[in-house]
Each structure stands twice: as structure tokens, then as C-alpha cells.
Amino acid sequence: MGDTPTEMILQQGHTHAVGIKMFSNYALQFEIIGLFLTVAIVGSIVLAKTPFTEKGIHR
Question: Is residue 1 part of a domain?
Fold first, then answer.
């Protein structure tokens, strides 16, 4: 895990070490990706709810 001490990985496990790295060293990137995913979900809901009109036909 890069600069993560081997003793920490052996004591706490790989999953815990990945969690610590992700939420400490990469917290900003994690937050930005979460924001992008939230915007994408809201955008898809808005697009799904807008009425579709083509040649006067309303759905």
C-alpha cells in the first residue's frame, strides 16, 4: 500500500489500511467524485421527468 507500514497491514488487515488511505490522503478526491455522482443522479432524474414532445404528441 505504498508508504503504509507493513505492521499496520498485518495487524489491521488490507481493507482497513485501504480505508485509512482513502479517507485520509485522498479525502478531497473522494468528495469530488461523490459530488459528481450526485449531480449525475439528479440530472438523470430531471431528464427522466421532463415531458417528451415530438410533433405535438405528448407522453
Answer: no
Domain membership of residue 30 as a residue range:
6-58
* pLDDT value of residue 58: 58
- N-term to C-term CA, the chain: 53
Q: Is the pLDDT of residue 36 over 60?
A: yes
Residue pair 4/17 in contact by the 8 Å Cβ criterion: yes
Query: What grid cell was written down for 54?
Result: 415530438
2 φ/ψ angles, rounded to the nearest 5 degrees = 70, -115
- Overall domain count for the chain: 1
